[in-house]
């Protein structure tokens, strides 16, 4: 594995980007974005911040590891108020503790939320910030150590304005169009719901059946189950085209056939999953609309049961 | 582990009992019944017959192993026509190849069928035998080698006349009342449906979730799933008391909490399961009665999918 050390490029206007969250997504974004701007990673644990300050963030991609050293890492602090933009890359279930802190920073600083599901929308709606962007990440990545992230699948990040004007963060999109692409979409609901449905169909099934994403299309029984779940979910999202969603999901399983879904990885590692933000949210929505979802209820109970079993051991 | 060798007791009238099938149930019945009668075990494989003729059948129970040597074992042969009674202990999915052979033996020989589910009823209905008994086995047992069976849970065998008179096999019941109890029930449908429901609720769930029977009552999500499956199945069996079935299933899970269900063992060993005879049969019944069973359909697809995956590896 070759190792390349590069310094942040000193061209154009340096913006200050804050990234909250030292998980795989936080590390991935910090690594790429720090190539052109001044980056501060805000971690929950002091020892992770220490590791990153000492070593930088190493990215492993296609067998090559690249380390960027000029990343400042810290735990939650005043550093937040001096950023030009803040990207929030914590899991949905860790967001609630963060909201009071976000609300205390100047309302002019745009925030970008990258959580799965839509359960966080109600929470971020109460924030004071003038510009709030929501996004979905299509990169495949895995945290290896506190300061190393593996970039398994190169994708894009879809951003949509939830409130305010996306023009405030246009510099972010143009600066990385060749190296770490962002795409803008006008309708945040469509962006988040599309990802919700994809996650709701693939993640619980793979984690219950313990198969890689490709297993869902290679096994006719599993394929049938996946399509049955999708059929149950589609009435919740009339804005999405049914045939396109089916084709997209089959293609995603094909393109990521050797990948293990994040939920399968969480279950196998004994971690909490995002089941409540994903399938839990969809089921609640179904209840409100009196739409019966028996298969989704089974999937939900199985994943919650697996989580509960892990808590015991 | 202590070892006791005992010879068949030479008292009373010796009857000739044929047991077809060298799986765990076949070995268990052969071992116990050979203590008082002349037993012939009919195996599919010559080498298993050879092993049993050489070594007898060893039973392991409560840490003690007991070997009975006077058991004659053979592959399918004329031996069938000279039995006083024949017990058929093969899996349901292996029964069809056996039926022409059974039909060729004298119609006076009573047959006892011990298969799970009810899928075999249609098949045995076409036989010529005057007396046909069906039964369910509540013993827990596990085949260790071709000539050794472990008796994990001591239970009883429930027998009910499907055709003819149970009086023809009364000697079997009275001879073993203290050592290997048989109980007679008047209604074969009730006997088989009760076992079908118990198996349909416990077996697929434990094999999908990879938990022991106790796991289904210790985990609140799994308990809820189990009760939801039972709710779907109960309309198919109006002859069974709903509250009693619920209580029975909870008690069975409690009493066998450290046991792994036969279906879980089959899945883990890469063997074919009895899913079609159990849940497959119930689902077909539901279709005929236009009773919707979405959760059972999910369980069925998951077990069939696991079977299909194993075929590949």
UniProtKB/TrEMBL annotation, chains A, B:
Record keywords: Membrane, NADP, Oxidoreductase, Pantothenate biosynthesis, Transmembrane, Transmembrane helix
EC number: 1.1.1.169
GO terms (BP aspect): pantothenate biosynthetic process
InterPro entries referenced in this protein's UniProt entry, alphabetically: 6-PGluconate_DH-like_C_sf, 6PGD_dom2, ApbA, Ketopantoate_reductase, KPA_reductase, KPR_N, NAD(P)-bd_dom_sf
Ketopantoate reductase N-terminal domain: residues covered: 17-163
Catalysed transformations (reactions): (R)-pantoate + NADP(+) = 2-dehydropantoate + NADPH + H(+)
GO cellular component: cytoplasm
Ketopantoate reductase C-terminal domain sequence ranges: 188-307
Membrane-traversing stretches: 12-33
Record bears the keyword Oxidoreductase: yes
Role of this protein: Catalyzes the NADPH-dependent reduction of ketopantoate into pantoic acid.
Name of the molecule in the record: 2-dehydropantoate 2-reductase
Biological source species: Falsibacillus albus
């Amino acid at each position: 594995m070759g190792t390349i050390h590069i310094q942040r490029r000193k061209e154009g206007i340096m913006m200050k980007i804050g990234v909250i969250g030292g998980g795989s997504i936080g590390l991935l974004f910090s690594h790429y974005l720090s190539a052109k701007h001044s980056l501060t990673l805000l971690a929950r644990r002091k020892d992770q911040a220490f590791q990153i300050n000492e070593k930088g963030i190493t990215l492993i991609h296609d067998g090559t590891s690249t380390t960027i050293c000029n990343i400042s890492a810290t735990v939650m602090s005043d550093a937040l108020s001096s950023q030009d933009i803040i990207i929030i890359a914590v899991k949905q279930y860790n967001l609630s503790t963060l909201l009071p802190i976000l609300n205390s920073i100047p309302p002019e600083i745009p925030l970008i939320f990258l959580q799965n599901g839509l359960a966080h929308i109600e929470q971020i709606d109460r924030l004071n910030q003038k510009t709030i962007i929501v996004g979905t990440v299509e990169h495949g990545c895995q945290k290896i150590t506190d300061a190393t992230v593996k970039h398994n699948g190169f994708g894009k990040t879809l951003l949509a304005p939830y409130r305010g004007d996306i023009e405030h963060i246009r510099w972010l999109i143009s600066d990385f169009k060749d190296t770490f692409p962002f795409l803008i979409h006008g309708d945040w609901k469509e962006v988040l719901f599309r990802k919700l449905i994809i996650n709701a169909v693939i993640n619980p099934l793979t984690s219950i059946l313990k198969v890689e994403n490709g297993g869902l299309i290679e096994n006719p029984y599993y394929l049938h189950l996946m399509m049955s779940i999708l059929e149950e979910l589609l009435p919740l999202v009339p804005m999405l085209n049914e045939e396109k969603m089916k084709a997209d999901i089959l293609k995603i399983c094909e393109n990521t056939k050797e990948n293990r879904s994040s939920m399968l990885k969480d279950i196998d590692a004994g971690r909490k999953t995002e089941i409540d933000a994903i399938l839990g949210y969809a089921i609640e929505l179904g209840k409100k609309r009196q739409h019966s979802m028996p298969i989704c209820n089974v999937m939900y109970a199985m994943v919650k049961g697996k989580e509960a079993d892990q808590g015991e051991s």
